[in-house]
Amino acid sequence: MRTKIAICALLGTALLAYAAKNDPVVMKINGKDVKLSEFQYLYHKNSAQQIEKESLEKYVDRFVVYKLKVAQAESECLDTLPSFKKELDGYKKDLLKPYLEDTTVINTLAQEAYQRMLKNVEVVNIFLTPGRDAVSAEAQKHRIDSLYQCLKNGENIEDLAYNYSEDRSAKKRRGSLGYIKAGVFPYVFEKVAYETPVGEFSEPFRSSFGWHLLKVTNVRDDKGKVVCAHILKLYPKNADEAAKAEVMNKMNAIYDKVVAGADFNELAKAESEDPGSASKGGMLRAFGSGEMVSEFEKTAFDLADGEISRPFETVYGVHIIKKYSSQPVGSFEEVKKDILTMIERDERATMAKDARMNELKKQYGFEKNKDFDRYVSQMIADAAGNDTVFVNSLKNSGFTAFTLKGKKVPVSEVAKNMQPRNVISAEGEKMMANMAFDEAVEAQISQLYMDELYNTNEYFHNLMNEYRDGMLLFEVSNRTIWEGASKDTEGLEAYYNAHKDEYKWDKPKFKGYVVMAYNDSIMQEAVKFLNENASDDDKYTKLKKEFKAKVNVQKVFSAQGENAVVDYLIFKTGKKPEIKKYKEFYVAEGNVQAQPECAADVKMQVVSDYQAYLEEKWVKELKAKYPVKINQKVLKMVK
User: Fold this and answer.
1) In the chain, fewer beta carbons within 10 Å around the N or the C end?
2) DSSP string, 560-621
């Protein structure tokens, strides 16, 4: 697919001329050409979805009707509706996404991630927060640079981490993160960790969390994952040695039961104090290196499959582990889906898109106005802190922001979606303007590329047309047939009266209202209320409002055997039904009908039949209204 797109981009108009020559018109509908490629695309897609294959001749008939309905939708200007345009634009963006990613970059990142999954890296880390504002951020930058100089001067990274790292665990672990694995830490941290040689330390770098300096102390093969269950007894808060010893004694007693043959999972349910796993018999999700505290991880990985550990300590308390199985890292193809999901979650997700965007910028001659930043700064100064004035100034500006394919794009185009945000700093307003600039560039390039794909990529072209025409088909059919029929009460009644003999029941049905009440006294009050309001068309709504939950009203339409209350009260079969809350039942009004008396009595069947009637009538009108010309010679070329 990518190769095809690249060739199209290079050949340009020559390819278009070639494509036009080799894509003849198979039919004209209302003067609009239908190319062979579009017809074949939809024909083959339809065939693939059919259980029983449809002949080409029958499909042609359906295809013509489909296009006639689209022509009608276009004549009604349904394709100009804001709602239609919005939905179609959203689909275009979704369809374009995979084309805006450089697959070479994605494949490279996926292979890189897999190679890292095969190894674990032991890391010592110095961490500094990024700073709360510009002043503190600059101070943190100077501080990490000073610590880097200390490392270069030979000082020990563990000592520096103990004294200066702002990681909460640094005092206890002296900056050690143990062995880390791919996909756990931010990509920039992972990249530095895996690319720093053993025994070396990195230059200062920044992640989404803050500043880092790290040293790699060892590398080992990844052990994959283990599946195990555990029993945990927690240490009491601020436990002293005596309290810890008491917990260990309890766990030794549990261990003795396990050794004696007690069911491990049942013991975990009864004894474990891990709320996440106890109810599951102590079962934990499969985990790998770096996902558990080091003591727990080491014990789990050192056990043989099926082996049970002796009680051991972690910072949380005392554990016993039963190991079920080991899961080595799978092949690249086996884990590729997980790798791609992992890539989508971090900054790598934008790398493939950025690479493609950079290619397209070159292809379309993108050039940022070198005076754009200066111009924005001047607008900020002129607005004197008033964000509304600043944004409105940009929206009315004809100053060139950038050039694309020789076309000058003004600042007003960049700012068209900007809204005042009560930004009080010049730096914040610059950031807002730069974000709008990047979004405008991406939108303009995406539109150019989409137009290019539409004109050069057959699959993209046909899929876009299919979705557009499908939306129009749905909208015009809904208005004319589906929704139109259900709302046309006069038409439905007239159709029913003309086809009365076609609607028959196998057995009589009761049609009316059933009132249910808490008890007999409330039922008597409800009956009195209905009698007093007998002429009020809204009496049942008022009844429910008056008595609230004490009374319920059901509009029923059912034959014998379809409603227990109706069977008991009307058809005199069965025993009195037991319904929660309601003890008494009363038929307020209604009668038993041997056959339907109006369209409403068989509404679903009448609506369906009426829709079919309207559809047939509509198609005849469309065929008479719009000319259709089929090129039989080209049609024979369909494969």
Assistant:
1) C
2) TTS-HHHHHHTS--SPPP--SS--EEEEEEEEEESS--SGGGGHHHHHHHHHHHHHHHHHHH
272 contacts 231 by C-beta, under 8 angstroms: yes
Tens digits of residue pLDDT in 387-442? 889 999 999 999 999 999 999 999 999 999 998 887 668 888 899 999 999 999 99
Neighbours of 607 (CB within 10 A): 18
Write the pLDDT tens digit of every residue in 280-312. Answer: 999 999 998 878 888 999 999 999 999 999 999
Over 60: is that where the pLDDT of 15 sits? no
From 435, 412, 421, 414, select the one nearest 386 (Cα to Cα). 421
Both tokens of residue 11? 């050949």
Per-residue pLDDT reduced to its tens digit, 442-477: 999 999 999 999 999 999 999 999 999 999 999 999
State the Cα–Cα distance between residues 396 and 49, nearest whole angstrom.
52
CA distance 265 to 552: 50
Whether the predicted pLDDT of 20 surpasses 90: no
Counting beta carbons within 10 angstroms of the beta carbon of residue 426, is it exposed (0 to 12), middle (13 to 18) or buried (19 or more)? middle
Report residue 305 as tokens.
């499959």
Instruction: Give the single-character DSSP code of 516.
Output: E
Average per-residue pLDDT for the chain:
90
| Chain centroid to CA 110 | 22
Instruction: Name beta bridge partners: 543.
Output: none
What is the biggest distance separating any 2 CA atoms in the chain, rounded to whole angstroms? 102
Sequence-distant (6+) residues with CB within 8 A of 533 are 539, 542, 543
CA nearest neighbour of 604 among 477, 484, 486: 486
- DSSP string for 6-43: HHHHHHTHHHHHHHHHTS-EEEEETTEEEEHHHHHHHH
The residue-averaged pLDDT of 560-570 equals 91
Alpha carbon distance 639, 185 (integer Å): 53
Residue 172: pLDDT over 90: no
Residue whose tokens read 């807002």: 432
Is pLDDT above 80 for 4?
no
Non-local CB neighbours of 97 within 8 Å, separated by 6+ positions? none
Chain-centre distance of CA 526, in angstroms?
51
Structure tokens at 148: 């880097």
DSSP H helical ranges for 384-425: 387-395, 411-415
Give the model's pLDDT for residue 253.
96
- Where in 464-550 does DSSP place strands (E)? 509-517
Reference 351, options 549, 109, 547, 560; nearest CA is 109
DSSP-assigned beta bridge partners for residue 408:
403
Query: What integer is the mean pLDDT of 591-597?
Result: 92
DSSP 429-468: HHHHHHHHHHHHHHHHHHHHHHHHHHHH-HHHHHHHHHHH
- % of the chain at pLDDT higher than 70: 96
Give CA–CA dist 133/452, Å, rounded. 45
Find the distance separating the first CA and the last CA of the chain, reported in whole Å.
22
| 3-class DSSP string for 346-384 | CCHHHHHHHHHHHHHHHHCCCEECCCHHHHHHHHHHHHC
> Are 332 and 111 contacting, i.e. CB atoms less than 8 angstroms apart?
yes
